[in-house]
TrEMBL record:
GO terms for molecular function: 4 iron, 4 sulfur cluster binding; DNA-deoxyinosine glycosylase activity; metal ion binding; uracil DNA N-glycosylase activity. InterPro entries: UDG_Type-4/5 (IPR051536), UdgB-like (IPR044147), Uracil-DNA_glycosylase-like (IPR005122), Uracil-DNA_glycosylase-like_sf (IPR036895). This is Type-5 uracil-DNA glycosylase. Belongs to the uracil-DNA glycosylase (UDG) superfamily. Type 5 (UDGb) family. Residues 50-225 form the Uracil-DNA glycosylase-like domain.
Amino acid sequence: MSASWKSLAQLDAAVSECRACPRLVQWREEVARTKRAAFADQTYWGRPVPGFGPDDASLAIVGLAPAAHGANRTGRMFTGDRSGDVLYQALYDVGLASQPTATHRDDGLTLRGTRITAPVHCAPPANKPTPGERDTCRHWLADELALLRPTLKVVLVLGAFGWQALLPVLADAGWTIPRPKPKFGHDVRVTLQGPTPLHLLGCYHVSQQNTFTGTLTPAMLRSVLSEAASLAGLP
């Protein structure tokens, strides 16, 4: 962990100023300038999106990357798009969010014992970061998990991209990754040994493709979140 980060607030401020990936910088800022017609009167965030949630979280949820007209507009993970609508409703249903909707950074939403983050903090074209962009952004995730380590008990990963990005970060942080490496799947659960036991859970991503086709239903999402909350000691 970088010695300069004394708190998640400091880390989040640094994340929001990152300009390390030229393609992502160009895309996120172009989207913020041109906007979607429905949001033409709004000022887009247009910067890297930091994690969201308390600094003593026992449950971390790892997604993919901000959406161009969601978090890239609102400045908060999974806020302002349909994926977020599904996720925050489910978090509210199982008692981890203070309200079922997430519309903007100042809407009053808080999370209980839960931190939401991503392996890539900038909105990528076509929602597809390159491997190089993933690796360049990796140190932010490593530092965030290091700051959460004293209380972290569970990591719930939304989608295969986040799963693949997270495993080497956990290995570098001292957790033992089984060999062969555990494969991503919905409702997969692995307990990692390391500084403290860490429960790693998989869940299909809350993308529109998955939720519209029924690949991930609200009941499936609530079930995985409930299991994660229980393992994290969040009744």
